[in-house]
């Protein structure tokens, strides 16, 4: 008896410990970034760091605005493409398609999710970049080298589809069949049932799937970096090249140049990314909270 | 043996003197591996409570789902035979399925309130029927909530989520929601099985009142409940109708050993 109780106590202690590590981890990372970038934000005004477009490290000018905008642009455009696609695909697969189709799709989705991002990057360079340069940009009377926000967004949307789709499929799987039967028995059509009942019932889950997809897309580095051009500028349209925050850090970290405060600037870039992700999460949490109230 | 058959036929005659509302003949339901309903023939009398009685797994839910074509959702099921309502065979209808379903209100084993407010749960069916006038909707919401004795309990929080009601209240809401589409028939599948005794009583009382205006077909495996409510009883066993007839006849004078056994165990 005492041994069992002891193990019981021990195991619950362990769980508390693991949980606290998990809770402290983001805090520790955040704190580390704040400290490591202090050389930068102690010597430069915060407002100009964020909103200035002037990026010339050799002259100690660190304006992060082009990077912040590139990151947001590429993520938002990617999500605009993949969000409705995933939702419609999930509705089709769970409500209309024969069951074998879902069974076939599951491993396909898993494989898509498992492809390393560098492979998506190569595919982007070989397929998406020429597609944007030769077909999509001319269609909108634009000139583009192909290495652009749009190319990054397309690659990113393809990458985020398996991730988001998987979560939305799970959301629909959890809606009880009886709820659909209740709606149909009241004289609703199948589409009305999906629209008024399933989507509402699943709203919370769908929104959190989008939220997680957003965070993940925002942080995606390699594949985007390979197709987006990496030019420091505020992109005027999706056909322009951009330079997202993760690419900035990944491209330059470790090349410790003799420029003072350069590596703390890169740390500051990571910190910005971290803050943006937290902000996005808070926004989505709020939306979820609102949607649960229905 | 012979006498048993004769009495069974007499019972059928007795029932057909009442006004029939639904006629099921030669209904068979097959799944891939099983014959779920075997040659069902019954006539449901109007403004009565018909109770489908039988042990679980005997096909009561399936029979109920045939009546409002929810069987359509299960592509593995194959149906043949006819179910006639108002002279129309609903099993062959291709286009007006939503209208057929609105002739029936469904109450399920557990309440499944729609993910919306109490008010909207009732208004949902009305809107599907094409009612647009806000005042009419409001009137009907009140009327049907009163009909199930829920109005006083929820009138101050009509706009709050239906999910927050107690399970007994939810079940009454689901009944009211079904009544709002003004059906002729109420289909109830073990409507009290998830409820506490008091909520169960409330539902039973509603049913006894509602039969003046509606025909009720109720599935139960609770013998006492069947005795309290039934006008007409259909006893099923392994997909077959073993006995059917007026409640008094069936309960006082069961013919088959299976029903006798069921009633003995059920006490
Ligand atoms: N969609 C289905 N596919 C295959 N078998 C089914 C299906 N629905 C019901 N059944 C089978 O039919 C039988 C009767 O089920 P049901 O009508 O739910 O019984 P009851 O409501 O009387 O408990 C059960 O054996 C069940 O397994
Ligand atoms: Mg059942």
Automatic annotation (TrEMBL), chain B:
Domain of life, per lineage: Bacteria
GO biological process: one example: phosphate ion transmembrane transport
Pfam families: ABC_tran
Swiss-Prot/TrEMBL keywords: ATP-binding, Nucleotide-binding, Phosphate transport, Transport
GO cellular component: membrane
InterPro entries according to UniProt: AAA+_ATPase (IPR003593), ABC_transporter-like_ATP-bd (IPR003439), P-loop_NTPase (IPR027417), PstB-like (IPR005670)
Annotated transmembrane regions: none
Gene Ontology molecular-function annotations: ATP binding; ATP hydrolysis activity; phosphate transmembrane transporter activity
Keyword set includes Metal-binding: no
Listed CDD domains: ABC_PstB_phosphate_transporter (cd03260)
Domain ABC transporter as annotated: residue spans: 22-263
PROSITE patterns xref list: ABC_TRANSPORTER_2
Entry coiled-coil feature ranges: none
Entries under PANTHER family matching the protein: ABC TRANSPORTER I FAMILY MEMBER 17
Protein name: Phosphate ABC transporter ATP-binding protein
Source species of the chain: Ilyomonas limi
Source lineage: Bacteria, Pseudomonadati, Bacteroidota, Chitinophagia, Chitinophagales
């Amino acid at each position: 008896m005492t041994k069992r109780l002891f193990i019981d106590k021990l195991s619950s202690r362990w769980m508390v410990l693991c949980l606290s590590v998990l809770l402290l981890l983001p805090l520790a990372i955040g704190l580390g970034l704040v400290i490591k970038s202090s050389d930068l934000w102690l010597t430069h005004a915060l407002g100009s760091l964020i909103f200035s477009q002037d990026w010339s490290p050799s002259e100690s000018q660190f304006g992060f605005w082009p990077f912040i905008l590139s990151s947001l642009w590429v993520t938002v455009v990617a999500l605009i493409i993949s969000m409705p696609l995933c939702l419609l695909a999930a509705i089709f697969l769970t409500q209309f398609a024969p069951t074998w189709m879902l069974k076939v799709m599951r491993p396909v989705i898993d494989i898509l999710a498992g492809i390393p991002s560098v492979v998506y990057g190569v595919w982007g360079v070989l397929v998406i970049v020429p597609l944007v340069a030769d077909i999509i940009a001319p269609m909108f009377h634009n000139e583009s080298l192909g290495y652009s926000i749009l190319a990054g967004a397309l690659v990113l949307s393809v990458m985020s589809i398996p991730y988001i789709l998987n979560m939305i499929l799970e959301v629909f799987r959890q809606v009880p069949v009886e709820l659909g039967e209740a709606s149909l028995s009241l004289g609703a059509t199948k589409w009305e049932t999906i629209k008024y009942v399933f989507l509402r019932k699943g709203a919370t889950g769908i929104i959190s799937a989008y939220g997680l997809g957003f965070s993940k897309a925002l942080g995606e580095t390699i594949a985007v970096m390979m197709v987006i051009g990496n030019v420091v500028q505020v992109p005027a349209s999706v056909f322009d090249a951009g330079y997202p925050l993760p690419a900035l850090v990944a491209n330059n970290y470790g090349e410790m140049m003799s420029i003072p405060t350069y590596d703390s600037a890169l740390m500051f870039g990571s910190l910005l990314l971290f803050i943006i992700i937290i902000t996005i999460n808070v926004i989505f949490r709020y939306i979820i909270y609102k949607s649960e109230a229905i | 043996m012979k006498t048993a058959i004769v009495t069974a036929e007499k019972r059928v005659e007795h029932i057909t003197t009442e006004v029939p509302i639904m006629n099921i003949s030669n209904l068979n339901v097959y799944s891939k591996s099983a014959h779920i309903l075997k040659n069902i023939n019954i006539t449901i009398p109007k403004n009565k409570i018909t109770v489908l009685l039988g042990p679980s797994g005997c096909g009561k839910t399936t029979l109920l789902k045939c009546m409002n074509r929810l069987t359509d959702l299960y592509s593995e099921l194959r149906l043949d035979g006819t179910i006639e309502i108002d002279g129309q065979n609903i099993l062959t209808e291709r286009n007006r399925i939503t209208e057929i379903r609105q002739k029936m209100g469904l109450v399920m084993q557990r309440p499944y309130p729609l993910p919306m407010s109490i008010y909207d749960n009732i208004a949902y069916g009305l809107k599907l029927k094409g009612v647009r006038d806000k005042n009419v909707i409001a009137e009907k919401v009140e009327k049907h909530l009163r009909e199930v004795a829920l109005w006083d309990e929820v009138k101050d929080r009509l706009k709050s989520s239906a999910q927050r009601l107690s399970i007994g209240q939810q079940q009454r809401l689901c009944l009211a929601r079904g009544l709002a589409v003004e059906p002729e028939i109420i289909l109830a599948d073990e409507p009290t099985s998830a409820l506490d005794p008091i909520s169960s009583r409330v539902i039973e009382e509603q049913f006894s009142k509602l039969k003046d205006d509606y025909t009720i077909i109720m599935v139960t495996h609770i013998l006492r409940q069947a005795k309290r409510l039934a006008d007409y009883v259909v006893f099923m066993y392994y997909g077959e109708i073993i006995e059917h007839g007026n409640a008094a006849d069936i309960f006082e004078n069961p013919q088959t050993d299976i029903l006798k056994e069921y009633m003995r165990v059920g006490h």
